[in-house]
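A sample copied in:

***
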Amino acid sequence: MRIELGNLTGAGVPAADRLWSLSAALAHLRGFVSDKAGELGKSAALSIACPNLLVAPILVDSLTPALVQLLRNAIEHGVERPVDRLVAGKPLTARIAVAVTAKPDHLLLEVSDDGAGIDPAAVVTAAFAAGAISQEAGTTADPMTLLHHRGVTLAGGDTARRGNGLKRAGQRLRAVGGTIAIHSEKGLGASATITIPLSRIGTVIAPGQALLDEGVPVQARR
């Protein structure tokens, strides 16, 4: 694919042939994190590390809702309230990060936080309560993979209406062949790693230009 920079507004270019600055597409997530944390009486700040990349619209359309869901999970279930962070010796404002890495054949995105982490035993208990596994299977299953099952939640309450956030995030990424792996260390935080094969994105990821940081679409010709 050759990127044509002569048409920076994208006028007259079919939407399917436009490329977008990924860093610009993710920038609004900082405001989402700050606002969501404030709604819950918490404090959190998001940092984004993303190289200048141009990506196809289908990636932005699939990736953004998935990241929003993962960030919501981190704020609601991972980040402690300020008083609890103070007791734990942590900064009052939680640190959440999104890091993007472009590999030769796939794209990696990691969403991490310095919150309370995930208790593996609690996940197994929740999965059993939701009917996701049998009691025998709980002794051999990887607790982090159980979080993908419908109804598995550590928040309590009505499991028929909760515990589907990670599942929804995975569904959002299905269009681009993305997968999510969860890692956690109790008391220190958790991370979700998204892997997307470049063969499913529909375009070659190319280095971005400084002018594209405002999210201006550019013409792309095959």
